[in-house]
Amino acid sequence: MAEHVLLVGSGGREHALAWTLSKSPSVSKVFVAPGNAGTATGEKVSNIALHLKDFKSVTQWCKENGVTFVVVGPEDPLADGIVDYFSQNSDIPVFGPTAAAAQIEADKSFAKHFLVKHDIPTARFQSFRDADEACNYIMSADFEALVVKASGLAAGKGVVVASTKQQACEAVKEMMTAKVFGSAGEVVVVEELLKGPEVSLLAFTDGETVALMPPAQDHKRLLDNDEGPNTGGMGAVCPYPWLSEAELEKIKTDVLEKTVKGLAAEGKKYVGVLYAGLMLTKDGPKVLEFNCRFGDPETQSILSLLKSDLLTTLKACVSGTLQQATPIFDTSLTAAGVVVVSGGYPGSYRKGLKISGISEVEKSGLKVFHAGTTLDAEGNAVTSGGRVLAVVAVEPNLKAAVHKATEGAGLIQFDGAFHRKDIGAKFLKRRESNACWAAGDRDETSEGLQYKDAGVDIEAGDYLVEVIKPLAKMTRRSGCDADLGGFGGVFDLAAAGLPSCVLTCRTLGVGRKIKFAEKRGHHYNIGYDLVAECVNDLLVHGAEPLFFLDYYATGKLHVPAAEEVVRGIAEGCLQAGCALVGGETAEMPGMYRGNDYDVAGIAVGAIPNSRLLLQQQVAVGDAVIALTSSGLQHDDFVVLEEVLLAYSLHLRKLKGVNGGQELLIPTEIYVKSVLPAMRAGKVKSFAHITGGGLTENIPRVLPPGLGVHLDASKWFMPPVFGWLQHM
């Protein structure tokens, strides 16, 4: 029978469900209500506008349009009883728990008391209806009572993990007094702050049988290094690599099966997806929360590994035959998803911004799952929510998956687009604190003192090398293979057609520009600038750049930032025609603070004996050609910083410099512009205008007694120079 499926919801989870359902040979149509831009048009998938709070009209529409199965994505309709209404008023099966069973998510106070009653491990807690009583509990508890939860549904935003007791009390008052989550905050749960890795374990159940999906980990904090405010999820990896089959079986038995049996014993038979949010503590796994539906963004990664027919499993849950139709996942692969969010999220943000780059990402073999998107009048995808979409990569190993997903997310463009650069990075390290709770709480200290104990992460360094190897490969040229992995390289001058030449080299850094770029996440520009400064200096001597080496020093290696720097170096090398042959990454805690870093570069070039630039050849009547500058050079940032300090200014307040963005435009690389003329013998001298300006740098390349006339009236003055001039 050709199945017509109604899928309720509009997020990334629903797009993933619609995509997976559409692959079923028994499905002829998936209607998504209300859906998003990703589910709007497709061979089998389309959107439909329904009044989802009016269950009667939804049921009637299903009957009239031949719907044979209903899948409910979000928690609100489940908690409001959509499954109950359909079962009482139609013969159409619905996948999801009843309102009574959905209390496991909809009422956090109920869920916590249920856990205690059925001896399922969880954090210590107390529920409150009075804000003062909750604050007294926070202040007097003999443990860190720093997690505050609105008991009701708050669209995944009703949890505050406070850093101090004062912050926890403020969260209580916002929920209960200011009612920031409405009626959801009439009761709050205050609970113990648990320590350890957090894992999402989802399972299908028909009310008796429990079938696990591969474990996943959501990255909830907005910023890299798990910093910033909590969000609905910035990305997920699946499977979570630090749980063994034995450990998963223990969680299945002690948590999920106990929960399903406990709910059934209370007359709340649970059918659907049961999602356990777990903390893997030293004392074992403990339940942070339950959800009564598929997670978001975990679903996008989990379903990307599903090999079997999703509809078959969903129908088996509803019919009570899951034991005969358990799902099959390919856990030999890894799926990594990176969420792209609107600027300002999780606070206020703009909507209706045109999105570009989606087709480019999908052509590369990645999958883009839409969330907060819609189509404008012209059919273009535009933003309509905080979490806009997720880019998912499926690869044979974790390194490749997280790298490709992050790279793909960077190609998605709209005004204010933002994504984390470190999704999955923590798993690429051999050791993870507090990750192991079974097998006698494996004592890693028995390994003896490690480099990591001194703040040097060798595994992160090794991973960085693997990530940047393809970048170096892109820069190969005649005379050099650019096979990165060492501290230096070999160059064959004869193979490059330079058997008779003079070698010259230059080494430079980027200076204070690094601090400006770091604050704005423009690490790529730093790498590009580093190459530009060095190779432009080679041109002063008429040299053709041959190869480049970099030095990256930091207090704590942050792989995504370092990767972006090297990505910029590689692009600079491509523009300069030189090979990136090697370099050094030095992690030196104590020398640098945290993720602060500095860079230096060495460029080596060749000058054919026939092309040595001789300043004595410059003569009266020779033309002086000025090449346009892209903006401030690295030396200029010392002056810029002094100006800002002297006038107590902030870049965001400067008119005409776009919040500092114009200051960070990469330095122009002049190799392609100048080298052909040099090879043709038309260039007698070349002045690189750096810190000394025109008055110091031009005389260096002129014979004694000779000067130049410059017509500055013909130059275009970038706004930043005009602003500095008039300060």
Automatic annotation (TrEMBL):
Q: Which GO terms describe its molecular function?
A: ATP binding; metal ion binding; phosphoribosylamine-glycine ligase activity; phosphoribosylformylglycinamidine cyclo-ligase activity
Enumerate the PROSITE patterns for this protein.
ATP_GRASP, GARS
Output the Pfam families linked to this UniProt entry.
AIRS (PF00586), AIRS_C (PF02769), GARS_A (PF01071), GARS_C (PF02843), GARS_N (PF02844)
> CDD domains from the xrefs?
PurM
Signal peptide start and end residues: none
Q: Does the keyword Calcium apply?
A: no
Can you supply a Gene Ontology BP term from the record? adenine biosynthetic process
Source domain of life:
Eukaryota
Domain ATP-grasp residues, every copy: 112-319
Q: Indicate the segments annotated as coiled coil, or none if absent.
A: none
Keywords for the protein's UniProt record, in alphabetical order:
ATP-binding, Ligase, Manganese, Metal-binding, Multifunctional enzyme, Nucleotide-binding, Purine biosynthesis
Q: Name one GO cellular component term.
A: cytosol
Pathway membership: Purine metabolism; IMP biosynthesis via de novo pathway; 5-amino-1-(5-phospho-D-ribosyl)imidazole from N(2)-formyl-N(1)-(5-phospho-D-ribosyl)glycinamide: step 2/2; Purine metabolism; IMP biosynthesis via de novo pathway; N(1)-(5-phospho-D-ribosyl)glycinamide from 5-phospho-alpha-D-ribose 1-diphosphate: step 2/2
Write out the similarity annotation.
Answer: In the N-terminal section; belongs to the GARS family.
Q: What HAMAP family does its record include?
A: GARS (MF_00138)
What is the protein named? ATP-grasp domain-containing protein
